[in-house]
Hints:
With 297 residues, this protein is α/β, with parallel strands linked by helices. The protein has helices at 3-16, 19-26, 30-44, 60-69, 72-87, 100-117, 134-137, 169-175, 222-230, 240-248, 280-296; strands at residues 49-51, 56-58, 92-98, 121-127, 141-144, 154-167, 189-192, 218-219, 235-239, 253-255, 265-272. The protein is elongated and about 80 Å long. The chain starts with a helix and ends with a helix. This is DNA-binding transcriptional regulator, LysR family.
Amino acid sequence: MSQDGDLAIFHAILDAGSFAGAARHLGVTPSAISKRIAQMEGRLGAPLFVRTTRRMTLTEAGQTYAARTKDLLTQLSAAEDEIAEGIGAIRGTIRLTSSIALGRRHVLPIVLDFSEAYPDVAVDLTLTDALVDLIEDGYDLAVRSAALPDSGLISRRLAGNRRIICAAPGYLARHGAPTLPHDLAGHACLTLNMRGPFNAWRLGDDWDRPLELGRGFSCNSLDALHAACLRGLGIARLPSFLVAEDIANGRLVALFDDVEGPAERSTISLLHPYTTVVPRRVRLLADALVEGFRHQV
């Protein structure tokens, strides 16, 4: 009897919530599912499920078995992929996520090059400014420019990433340039309309305390704030990967470079969940991202 097959059946029941649902998912009959579970329980010497006409629950032994075997199927699948990819073509799916602005400018070109080089690998790229849970949402990799919490994820540095307070020359001509950080309270400041540390502008000796900002246009997109800043609608705090070229070409003017605090510098990182087996296709894309950012940013 295949124990990994039994394991797949056991977790299919947990995912479906019933023997009948697991049977539909696996394409077998409910009686076949019941027979295999009965054989498992006989081999283990303990019942795994309590089944009534209304509901199904795990026994204490079932809860222990579920907790101890949760990652085994994933590791087994990854190990089989690793072996198959080591002797044949690189194939399979990679789920990757990035913030929208960073992803559009820097991640997407690297992914497209990778997809051309490895046509049998399907890269599933999600661009979102929401902070996703890699493990809960099933992502293999994430590119992030925000400060990283102690999440237990494996991190690789891709590039440095300054936050630059800047404005268009037209805005400064109409409203004057702020000379001190607290002057920002009297200016139109462009901010994200979402929770998080991005709107906490910190400068100079008081870098540990967020500055008071004047009200201005807000949006949930860094690209939109960038566009508003270029149009002269106010002062924005934007990552260097978005505005470095604009500043070099005079479309935007950097402010407060001489009083920049530690919070204005962060790192663009590549994250992946800890696992004992990383498929070769995932390692290849991770290496491509590291190399690509070395040349881009």
